[in-house]
Every structure is written in structure tokens, then in C-alpha cells.
Amino acid sequence: MNPSPSFRCVCNLVGLALLAVAPATSAQPTWGNPSPTAGSETSQKANAAADQTIYQPVTYTNAGKKGPALVVIPGEIKSNNATFLQKFTPNNIADFGEVELSSANFTVLERSDLGSLLKEFELAYNLGDPEQARKFLRMGKLKSTKYVVRFDILKTEQVAAAQSGFDGRTLGAMAGLLGAFSGSHSGAAAGAVGGTAVGSVQTSESTGVWVIGMRYKIINAETTEQLATGYTEEKMEVGAKSSSVLGVSQAQQGGVSLDTMVQRLVQKSVWEIDSKYK
């Protein structure tokens, strides 16, 4: 028996009511841009440069395969570069390592699980004392640890720099003098205008290139023997340029930051670990 029109109408109303009270699908949060220059030409250029440094996840070759349990311990920073040492500590780099190894589907045991024993744990491994080191891995979740991984910074140095520029004041002065010696009022006026225009032109450009090198070590959690090591380097370029003509000026500066460089080096190292040692 077919339902009556009134019954179908009631059913439709009930369905609409249920849709109205159903929770809306949550969307990823977004934020506005309060900058007064948002959308302007300078904003577009700055954002285009910043987009090149934003975090980009890596597709790890063996991410579908579950990796063994490991602990990331802080490594060493053997660079004497003051800027780098002010921004980074071995703990920062170890944090990046935990994030990427987790993305590669390794079972990463939190360093916080070691609590106040972390320093003693690191010292035992660094001194190659397996029995003392294993003491801290014989309890709770740490029992399953197979590898101990560390990331060391071996190099941070500026290897190249270049500068170029143009200052039109000398040529502008010469143009003004040529106009003055032309012998005519119109020539002198043209020379003055041309000299002012040429003299207002100023441009400058500078580029610096850094090389940062990272080493990783994989240590057997049972014996503290080194199982594998690898090294990788990346270039970091920082540049700036400016120009000014008749009072209208433009300037840009930017490049990959140290934070981004360190994270990319960790990603390259973890990609190799994932490919070779799972």
C-alpha cells in the first residue's frame, strides 16, 4: 500500500529536522590576515617567498611498514657559529627527529618517559657503557627499544657571498655639467633634469650562501654498538636587493631560515634511515 501524501510530507519534515540538528562537519581552522598591507604587491611578493620555506611533509619510501621502537637522544652541535648556537640546542634537533621518524612509521618512544634519568641515559650511551644504559630501558614502555638515534650538526658556515650595485650620482653630476657647458639655456635645463634623474638611480643586491651539514647515528640499544651512520649537506641562500629611482624605492630580502634548513636535513636523514634500516 502506498503511503498517503500527508504521511510522506511528515516524513520529509522529520528528515529535514534531523539534518538541522546533526553536527556540522568540522573544517580545518583558518585564520585571517590582520596586516594593513594584506593583498598588496609587497604582501604577495613576501608571501610567495615565505611559501618556499613552509613545512612540506616527505613521503617516506617504507612508511607503510612499521618500524622498530627507538629513542632519539640529543646529539652534538660542533659548529662555532654564534647565530646558529643562539637559535638551536641539541634538544630542538631531537624534537625534529622525533616528528619525522614518527611520520616514517617508526615507534618513537618519548624522551620524557625517561624523566630525570635522561642525562644519565645519554651519558651512558655516549660513554659506550651498555650495561648502565640498559638499566634505563628495562622498565615500562622502554623495554621494547631496539635503536637509539641521534642527529649531530657538524658544519654551519658561510661559504660564499656576492654584492653588486649601481649609484647614479656620479653620472648624474656629469650629465648636469655637460648640459651647463652646452652653451644654451635649454641645454643647461635638460642637463639639470637629466642629471637629477640619473643621479636618483640607486640599486644594490647581495647574496650569501651557507652550507649546513648533519650526521645521523643509529646505535644498537642492547650493545651500544654503532649500527649505521650517514651524512648530508644542504645549501642555504639568503639574499637582499633594493632599488630607488626618482624617490620611488623597492626592497626585498629573504631566504630559507635556519629552522627550515635543519628540518630538511633531518628529513633527508630520516628518508635514508627509513629506506635502509627498517
The CATH architecture can be given as 3-Layer(aba) Sandwich
The mean pLDDT is: 74
Give the CATH superfamily: ABC-type transport auxiliary lipoprotein component
The biggest beta sheet, please? 6 strands, mixed
Strand order in the sheet with the most strands: 2-1-3-4-5-6
Kindly provide the radius of gyration, computed on alpha-carbon positions and rounded to a whole number of angstroms: 31 Å
Low-confidence parts: none
Q: Helix tally? A: 9
Distance between the termini: 64 Å
Bin the helical content.
25-40%
Please identify the structural class as seen in this structure. Answer: alpha/beta
CATH topology: Rossmann fold
Query: Which strand-content bin applies to the residues?
Result: 25-35%
CATH class: Alpha Beta
- Number of spatially distinct domains: 1
Could you tell me the number of beta strands? 6
**Shape verdict:** elongated
Q: What order do the SSEs take from the amino end to the carboxyl end, as H and E?
A: HHEHHEHHEHHEEEH
Which terms would index this structure?
278 residues, alpha/beta, Rossmann fold, 6-stranded mixed sheet, 9 helices, 6 strands, 27% strand
How would you concisely characterize the structure shown here?
The protein has 278 residues and is α/β, with parallel strands linked by helices. The chain has helices at 5-21, 41-51, 82-87, 90-103, 118-126, 130-135, 169-180, 185-199, 258-276, and strands at residues 69-72, 107-108, 147-167, 202-220, 226-245, 248-255.
